Amino acid sequence: MQCTASTSAPARSPRRPSRRSRLARVAASATVACAALAAVAPVHAQVRGEPNDGQVMLGFWFDSADPYHDTPSIINEKLGVNVPVFQMAQSIPLPPYNYTTGAGGPAPENQIERSATDAHVFLTVYPNNGFDAITDDDFTALGKQILDYQQNLNRTVFLRYAPEMQGLWMEYGQQPVAFNQSWHNMYYLVKAVAPETIMVWAPNTPQGYPYGQTGTAYTSLSAADQALLDTNQNGVLDAGDDPFGPYYPGDDVVDWIGLSVYYKGIPSDTENTRQPEGYCSQIIRGINPESGVAIEPWYVPYCEQKPDKACMFAEMGAAYHTSDTTGISQAQLQQNWLTDCVFSETMYDTFPRIKLYMQFEYEKDETANDGSIDHRDFRVTNTTEVVASMRADISSIGTRFTWAQSRAPPTSISSAGAPAATNSAGQSIIQAITATTRPRPTTFPSLFGSTSDGTQRAEWAELGILVASGVLGAWAVMRTL
């Protein structure tokens, strides 16, 4: 029911009726109902990082690894807009960067910097070695890295820590006691260093919970974990248990609330089939789109009823099964997904607390329900037809989306909305972008631009030696011809 108040004066009746019409009585009842709803409905304050009322953000994951070499700049060029949020990932404890393989080190924020926009950093941090491997110093180092993004690069930073914590596909999964302890420790240590960090709690979709993690997978857990997970207290872990509550660390230590939402096919998760209408809407309202059976709702308890929280689809996408050549095309599958779940004004109006949609722009192998390895392509920017459709949708929706602003490399810290040319240590912007907690290279060639003056002199000297050697070698060869 939509409640509105008219500001125009009512038309004057030529005579007073003896009693109210049925329509008038209904209108009066509706007014009372609206007043009652207004009295109990939470009033949402604007949360840090949230766009203006009525607007949403479209964010992207990007795969910078070989052989994709995807970047924010490439995505922006394809879409014709400046995407406002980009996702990056790293582990904690942070492994050292390997200059040979490119593995380890902090997430590649320099790719966002090179887009020449003020896009937000969406940093996912995975405790891939388990919670016990993380020390307080690791969280403090993470806070310093984020503070560097915020102060030296003037970036808004979302931190999504230990996502999809309900699943055993994560090394740290299905450990509610340890998760909650680690979350609180992370929250206070990171916030002590970088208080403006936006903390994102983001579980997996309730579809299929408990994801086959029953039997010994459940009974082998500690008594404390079992007690937390068995929310309906029937002695087993089953679909009747709450997939969210045992892992929610509390309103006082969460800023935004996310959810992983994917379409992988109905009825088969290895075939390319048309997505049911209202697929995403059903999931977050508490209906399994495949069976129609009730599942735990997400939107009302975690978005609508939490006045100081904003919500997001932290991961989202539709899987195109590359091995299936008989189903619908990738363009059809991705367009269905975008129309139903992303470029839908019905979604925006029905679920106004969802303020960010993060597209999973990857392809990967996953284990299907039948145990086979299925190659799935979630990307929407690698198909010309889909990109053209997205550009048209973006244009038609107009001001419902908010986009990043362009900004040139700054010349002064006082430049509004831009990072400083140098930080307090006198480092160049290239250093601040790329170094974070990585060690610097000390020999030629430098992978990350400017280093210290001494290292630069050494690199130029080595470059001169290489050039001179090349010239001399060429001259020697020419003499023999």
Automatic annotation (TrEMBL):
<dbReference type="InterPro" id="IPR006311">
    <property type="entry name" value="TAT_signal"/>
</dbReference>
<dbReference type="GO" id="GO:0006080">
    <property type="term" value="P:substituted mannan metabolic process"/>
</dbReference>
<protein>
    <recommendedName>
        <fullName>GH26 domain-containing protein</fullName>
    </recommendedName>
</protein>
<feature type="region of interest" description="Disordered">
    <location>
        <begin position="1"/>
        <end position="21"/>
    </location>
</feature>
<dbReference type="GO" id="GO:0016985">
    <property type="term" value="F:mannan endo-1,4-beta-mannosidase activity"/>
</dbReference>
<dbReference type="InterPro" id="IPR000805">
    <property type="entry name" value="Glyco_hydro_26"/>
</dbReference>
<keyword id="KW-0326">Glycosidase</keyword>
<dbReference type="InterPro" id="IPR022790">
    <property type="entry name" value="GH26_dom"/>
</dbReference>
<feature type="compositionally biased region" description="Low complexity">
    <location>
        <begin position="1"/>
        <end position="12"/>
    </location>
</feature>
<keyword id="KW-0378">Hydrolase</keyword>
<comment type="similarity">
    <text>Belongs to the glycosyl hydrolase 26 family.</text>
</comment>
<feature type="active site" description="Proton donor">
    <location>
        <position position="164"/>
    </location>
</feature>
<dbReference type="InterPro" id="IPR017853">
    <property type="entry name" value="GH"/>
</dbReference>
<feature type="domain" description="GH26">
    <location>
        <begin position="14"/>
        <end position="369"/>
    </location>
</feature>
<feature type="active site" description="Nucleophile">
    <location>
        <position position="315"/>
    </location>
</feature>
